[in-house]
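Severity: low
Component: inverse-folding endpoint
Summary: output formatting inconsistent between runs
Steps to reproduce: submit the following structure tokens with default settings.
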């Protein structure tokens, strides 16, 4: 941008570029004022509802009990302003916002669109406490499999619903990343208070939730008065996102002009997923970009002061084929800036069976060798990949921190033959998940199943992107992954503290 407009101040340059991107929509608005957008659903209550009982940074709520009481009032608003406003023509069995539909998350108990508390089997003596944080446009459900596993292992687990989530996509129109960060801080303090001062405290997050865990740990390391975590568990962490996300906020400002409200949305689609928004406001993209910049600034500041030493150990699981966040950013912008202090990155490689390789982009297979050919790294690198090309047997290729040697450790896992890679959303979800898993649940468990949704017909006929039907939603390596988590949380690796 600077090369194109060298004399233009950066804020103005960004505005000019945003206006350029918005011109097609502005032109269309002039020629079809008052008409519904072509090939997009009309605005519905879930796109326009305003919720007054949502948590914000600086709110009076200071404990998790306060947060849950506010959440009760928020969901009462959701019922009044969305569910009770659904028009007759929108009353479909797969509309999340038609009460009692197959996609209504409220008909199943507990309601995993809300904050969940899972007490340890020995409630009076848990192994420690875990806070889990979901991703952008998700809800606590995405962390359900991980939460229930850790609960069975003796942990006290809280799965936090972030502000703007679990209700309606309109909840993301005005939310700020600082609201999410404030909610995380409130929840961490509450978990520490519940388990006591001496027991391990673990933070785990998926995508944006992972970024929020990193931001928290860095803020604590910089001196903010916060309980110190023992371990970070990251699943597809959003350390780097599309650079165009920085412009989303500028384009979003134009949506305040009468008649241009649609400019505030990157996508508006039917809401058939009970636990994830399909519609996506531009503000949401802007906020995650700002959060990644906050993390970059924190790491830079620590490096200037001697390095990001003394952080809790970080264990991250990332797919090489992630179309949502940057795998390279996880390697370079996070792990590459950490000292050699026991951090570990697990990368799920693409499936290297021969027939599928003929129709896949070559770059998908290049990352493994680039990482293995690098000079010694300051973290343990583990790549889950085919033991040999064109064979389904899976092994882990391990390169310890500070070493260039690669060890091969066989596993009992086989690549599913119809699977070419894991996806961003698949990492935290077990294969037997009743909503996103590999097999549809048996009746009479009447709920929508999205694990292998497939529709056949002509192209360009659907209101939803055809790629949404291709994306993997569960992790066939989930049991192996949780075994790695259990190992990382074993007493020999713990160092509780505040």
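Observed output (run 2 of 3):
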């Amino acid at each position: 941008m600077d090369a194109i407009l060298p004399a233009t101040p950066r804020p103005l340059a960004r505005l000019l570029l945003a206006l350029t991107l918005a011109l097609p929509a502005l032109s269309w608005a002039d020629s079809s004022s008052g008409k519904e957008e072509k090939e997009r659903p009309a605005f519905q209550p879930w796109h326009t509802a305003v919720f007054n009982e949502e948590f914000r940074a600086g709110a009076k709520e200071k404990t998790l009990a306060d947060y849950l009481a506010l959440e009760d009032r928020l969901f009462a608003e959701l019922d009044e302003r969305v569910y009770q406003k659904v028009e007759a023509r929108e009353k479909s069995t797969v509309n999340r916002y038609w009460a009692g539909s197959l996609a209504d998350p409220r008909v199943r108990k507990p309601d995993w669109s809300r904050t969940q508390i899972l007490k340890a089997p020995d409630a009076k003596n848990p192994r420690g406490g875990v806070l889990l944080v979901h991703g952008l446009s998700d809800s606590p459900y995405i962390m359900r499999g991980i939460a229930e596993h850790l609960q069975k292992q003796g942990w006290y687990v809280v799965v936090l619903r972030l502000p703007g989530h679990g209700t309606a996509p309109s909840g993301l129109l005005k939310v700020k990343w600082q609201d999410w960060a404030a909610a995380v801080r409130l929840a961490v303090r509450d978990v520490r208070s519940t388990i006591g001062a001496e027991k391990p405290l673990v933070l785990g997050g998926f995508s944006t939730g992972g970024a929020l865990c990193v931001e928290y740990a860095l803020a604590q390391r910089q001196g903010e008065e916060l309980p110190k975590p023992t371990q970070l568990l990251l699943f597809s962490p959003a350390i780097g996102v599309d650079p165009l996300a920085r412009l989303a906020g500028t384009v979003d400002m134009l949506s305040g002009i009468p008649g241009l409200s649609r400019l505030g949305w990157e996508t508006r689609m039917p809401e058939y997923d009970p636990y994830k928004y399909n519609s996506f406001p531009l503000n949401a993209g802007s906020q995650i970009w700002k959060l990644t910049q906050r993390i970059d600034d924190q790491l830079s500041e620590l490096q200037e002061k001697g390095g990001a030493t003394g952080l809790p150990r970080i264990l991250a699981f990332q797919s090489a084929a992630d179309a949502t966040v940057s795998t390279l950013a996880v390697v370079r912008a996070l792990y590459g800036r950490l000292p050699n202090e026991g951090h570990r990155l697990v990368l799920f490689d693409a499936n290297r069976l021969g027939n599928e390789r003929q129709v896949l982009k070559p770059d998908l297979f290049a990352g493994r060798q680039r990482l293995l050919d690098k000079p010694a790294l300051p973290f343990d690198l583990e790549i889950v990949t085919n033991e040999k090309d064109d064979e389904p047997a899976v092994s882990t290729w391990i390169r310890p921190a500070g070493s260039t040697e690669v060890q091969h450790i066989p596993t009992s896992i086989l690549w599913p033959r119809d699977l070419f890679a894991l996806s961003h959303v698949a990492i935290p979800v077990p294969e037997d998940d009743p909503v996103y898993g590999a097999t549809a649940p048996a009746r009479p468990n009447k709920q929508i199943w999205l694990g292998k949704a497939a529709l056949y017909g002509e192209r360009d006929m659907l209101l939803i992107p055809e790629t949404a039907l291709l994306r993997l939603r569960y992790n066939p390596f989930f049991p192996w992954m949780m075994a790695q988590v259990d190992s990382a949380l074993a007493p020999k690796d713990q160092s509780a503290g505040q």
